[in-house]
Amino acid sequence: MGYKQRILLLVLLDSIIVSTAIFIASWIVYPNYSLENMKVVAITSIALLLFHHLFASIYKLYHKVWAYASVGELIAIVKAITFTIVATAIVQYLFNDFTIYKRALIVTWLLHIMLIGGSRFVWRVYRDRFMHDKKNKKRTLIVGAGSAGAMIARQLKNEQQHNDLLPVAFVDDDISKHKMQLYDIPVAGSTAEIPEVVSNLEIDQIVIAIPSLTNAALSELVTICNNTNKKVQMVPKIEDIVSGKISVSSLKNVDVEDVLGREPVELDIDSISEYVTNNTVMVTGAGGSIGSEICRQLIRFTPNKILLVGHGEFSIYSIDMELRNKYKDSDIEIIPIIADVQDRERIFEIVQDHNPRIIYHAAAHKHVPLMEYNPHEAVKNNIIGTKNVADAADTFGIHTFVLVSTDKAVNPTNVMGATKRVAEMVVQNLAKSSKTKFVAVRFGNVLGSRGSVIPLFKKQIEKGGPVTVTHPDMTRYFMTIPEASRLVIQAGTLARGGEIFVLDMGEPVKIVDLARNLVKLSGYTESEIPIKYSGIRPGEKLYEELLGEDEVHPKAIYEKIYIGKTIAVEQDSLFELINTFTKHDKQQLKEHLMDIVYSKKIKKVESVN
């Protein structure tokens, strides 16, 4: 129906309702009409019609979508009708010898509200009850009968044409809500009873609607839900919900990050602000997973200028556009810079021109098997690239230089780990004589990074499997990208020079358990998406270590941040590697790297602490 047709239909309907209401009210109050009574009724009817249309227009009763009518629309109806009756009473007073037929107007007011409200809300009732095909909907259990659960239930019911979910029950651990109803949906029990409720009510899908859940509690709840073999979705975490509004479109699949992620670390805002606010900061590898997240975290502290340095054109363009769109109203100068850290002259030019207060060096080649096949590129990027940026920081007196390192630098068995360990040695040696505070921050795998196993597993699941795991005993430490980035930034404020900070990664996780979790969270069973073992790849270890127990100071200097007791190397050995690595073949270069990392010439030194 067109807009004009709809307005005309509503005006005609309201005119009939108003006329009917006044005549019924007059008949109820004054059953024996006289000619004089009819004259008053006619004047009152005309006044009611005119004023009703006037106030209906003022309160936009002809412009509302009544299929989604709720309390707000009911209040608008009551206001419009009340003002209509009051205005009509004034007309009666003026044209009927200062007499108002109060009882007739009160009955008219009641009938008016009943008929106008009924005519509007009957459409919503009809739509909800009869217009939608509930047979093809997925019967949905909502976990959490609080405000978030109520919003989800209401929107699922109101937007049935645009979603395939039909809410049929809640579960909630608040006993006072049990056997109660919310939007005509029963609270069927507690979270412990989810398997039973799913079975009894033939549930097809589960939605977790408790945005304030801690990661530990969410993990426990997801385990219960996974045991039902039904698809599980959730509303975003509370910190991700803008303005407190939850929409159906915001429902997301439960990710491994949600289950494995830990509680967020409270940052020392003052110390970070001192380093970042109104200063220039530089991030190398700004287009990568860690580098881009460091940029997102840093820009919240309103630096005067942020330098996005990277070799990949598209990745730098992406983070540049993201930050510009999000902070378009700020005075922060965002400068995208295409540069290769291997280009010493270019790096020196950037540092000299912009003079950043702090440099976060996240640029690196991190893929273990690829670096086994390409050791010369690993040396050029991870060692020489680090030396170029670090030397530039030293030459131009930059306040702090933070190297983003890896757990694979500990007792390395592969090229990538060895080159990152040598990169640590480079900054440690510079720290001995430089005014710049040089530090390295070491942590394990990050969930969701482009090089992690999670994207690979997801692609394999989308294709129907199998999910390939290298070995049943393969274990790794995991941390979310935002947590790792926040701790890297925090570690930079703790630097005094020469430290290797070690981030507390929690307990190691078996890769096969990660794969099983992901299969279940994707709504499949292992019989549908099998897991197969492909064998350990070149350079891989069954487990990683951040530092041996005897190499870590037992007391954290900040929540989840420790200082490691590290080893340095004679500078001559580093220069020898840099000057001669192109002359070696792959095997010779690998042996040379391991000689430096494990050389007897290396002497143990305890970092500044």
UniProtKB/TrEMBL annotation:
Pfam families: CoA_binding_3, Polysacc_synt_2. The keyword Transport does not apply. Belongs to the polysaccharide synthase family. The keyword Transmembrane applies. Residues 281-564 form the Polysaccharide biosynthesis protein CapD-like domain. The chain crosses the membrane at residues 7-30, 42-62, 74-94, 100-118, 139-156. InterPro entries: NAD(P)-bd_dom_sf, Polysac_CapD-like, Polysaccharide_Synthase-Rel. This is Polysaccharide biosynthesis protein. CDD domains: UDP_invert_4-6DH_SDR_e. Keywords: Membrane, Transmembrane, Transmembrane helix.
